[in-house]
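Hi R.,

Here's the chain you asked about this morning:
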Amino acid sequence: MSLDPAVIDALSHVSTATITTELRRLGLHSVWMRGPRPLRTGQPRVVGEAFTMRFIPFREDFSNPQAWPQRRSFVESVEVVPPGAVVVVDAMGNLGAGVFGDVMSSRMRYRGVAALVTDGALRDTPGLIASGLPVWCQGMAAPPITAGLALANWQEPVGCGGVAVLPGDIIVLDDDGGVVIPPAALDELIPSALKHERLEAWILGEIAKGAALPGLYPPNADTEARYEAATRAGGAPDR
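And here is the predicted structure, written out as tokens:
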């Protein structure tokens, strides 16, 4: 799992809002994870390949530590996530148990995991923040994972926040939440998304000068022409 640094650099300059808009133009509408929010706002935008984990409801004979040697264990899961990956956890929207806490998140951070996103809850808020792992979740819960969930598998298709996520999908996370990008869409998405960002930055500059919105946003043909002229003259933002 090794994402091209040029892709990371490009997408780190594109908001999830822009990405969802541009993916809609490509016919991809269900890409934004509903529910997960950043534990702390103002974190740098995160870009990485999805490493998926799927959780199921807790069952006593399946979920206790004694059963771990016979199946993939909860603790082992953290040790196989590659550096740079975004861990995407399908917790079925369960908010009654903390999927991960400070110990697991600290280990992930040490191993170079880029971020964690889940449609469930996490626990140990102070330690989670202190770990430095960028986290997006739907809430916090004091009870441990055994209060409601068990790890079923990793690196298989999952659902997170109402969105299908496949291992190797590209995940972008910022203050507006998380968006899923199929790798096959990157070649079309990146140029259009970067242009979208530059155009909107220019439009905001025009608004700051007092320009009215009609014809400016959404841009009509005249606005597009003025933007292109500003770009040629070096008056439009690079990003």
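One quick note: Residues 84 and 166 are 16 Å apart (CA to CA).

Cheers,
M.
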